[in-house]
Amino acid sequence: MLDNPRSPRVRAVAKLSNRAARSETGLFLLEGPQAVAEALNFRPELVVELYATPTALERHPEIAETAVDAGVDVEFVTEQVLETMADTVTPQGFVAVCHQFPTSVKEIFAKEPKLIAILEEVRDPGNAGTIIRAADAAGADAVIFTGRSVDLYNPKVVRSSTGSIFHLPVAVGVTLDDVRERARFAGLQIFAADIKGTDLLAARNEGLLLAPTAWLFGNEARGLTDEDLALVDRSITVPIYGHAESMNLATAASVCLYESAFAQRSI
């Protein structure tokens, strides 16, 4: 059992909470039973190291079975060691180290996608991870992070995706101009979520959501610039019928992605 929280091995895992260490090693941190289970079930080849407390493994024996089937060794650690490794204050008994695995935008558009989400300067990791999860749930074909958005492998992005990061292709580090050109060439219309746009219900009634669509979501505080909006086919707003001052970005993105998913599946 690994029981020294000051050991070089433990410190190396803990450093993956920092972007510099992730960039240098090409690795990232995974925490919690749900995310670990998704990695083992969908992309076990990415798992480099898997740590667990004995208590956690007793609570989740299925993870041990899946790890054995995948050929991944589980190393026991103390609660103190796990707390040192983890990015969260109260980790849930599991920490894994995984290889980063971004998909190229060329590969995404080569598969003739019908629904994708593009994140332009989305900085909040919780929002970014939740949008990945929503895109996965809505059956989207991919998510694309432009180079101005948060790091895909930020621990909070990974946690907020609740394992969806392993379910669909995610590209990173591209420019919005490049994505726009590729989307147009692939026959996708580009809709921007923007408060000054066409009402989403009107867009639905006009049949605008039936076609293959790339949804563009901007910064939480500033939204999208006029230059960004000039690149899209149409701006769409999610109407607020109650008294809320505004809508959280991830919530609005979920609504937009699901509206497209409903429309495309109705054909």
TrEMBL record:
Keywords: Methyltransferase, Transferase. GO terms for molecular function: RNA binding; RNA methyltransferase activity. It comes from the Bacteria. GO terms for cellular component: cytoplasm. Residues 29-104 form the RNA 2-O ribose methyltransferase substrate binding domain. The keyword Methyltransferase applies. SMART domains: SpoU_sub_bind. The keyword Transferase applies. GO terms for biological process: methylation; RNA processing. Belongs to the class IV-like SAM-binding methyltransferase superfamily. RNA methyltransferase TrmH family. This is RNA methyltransferase.
